Amino acid sequence: MAGNRALSNLELMPTDIQTEIISRVARHSRRAVRNLLAAVPPLAPSAAVPIVYRNLNIHPLTVHPRAALHRYQSLMENCLASGNLQAHYVRGIQQYFHYNNVHGGLPHLQIAAEGSYEKAVYLYGVIMLSKGETAIGQAMLDTLGWRQNKNRADRVTRLESYMTAYLNTRETIACHRDNIHERCDTCYYYKQLTKFVYMM
């Protein structure tokens, strides 16, 4: 009988210990939390708390922030309310780039950057540099420790792959190469890549 089943050791633990365990699982991935709750459904109340949302790894949304524009709304709101740095990064990207809402996006990027979320540190630092806030931008980028290890900043930006694609594409363009506003079938993608690489 399902109602008379024996409780697992995890279910017998105090709620705060359950929450701590779920919070640690959340650092790994959202899927890991779902799997845990599928295995032990009575733990759901211990999972729906701010510390779990704050630690929840939502990396897939940081890679594809637009995926959360119309989906994952409840998840995003809970993560934001709990101070999840990845959620602030995603919301900052959405607001700043998708909605062109600088004033709505920049505070989220700042929160994530000041919390040392590396992708946000880089992006916020570069945005500050481009806005003429040199001291803030340099200080932010310096936290990536580029003087000690340039690979860390490169890992965050992946700019090398964009630059390689940009330079390789440029070699194939014979039409209005130096006029960013004039585009045709031959140079459209090159111009879009140019805008992306130099958008800051």
From TrEMBL:
Pfam families registered for this protein in UniProt: TPR_27
Matches recorded under InterPro entries: At1g67623-like, At2g35280_TPR_dom
Domain At2g35280-like TPR: 70-144
Name of the protein in question: At2g35280-like TPR domain-containing protein
PANTHER family from the UniProt entry: F-BOX DOMAIN-CONTAINING PROTEIN (PTHR33784:SF42), OS05G0482100 PROTEIN (PTHR33784)
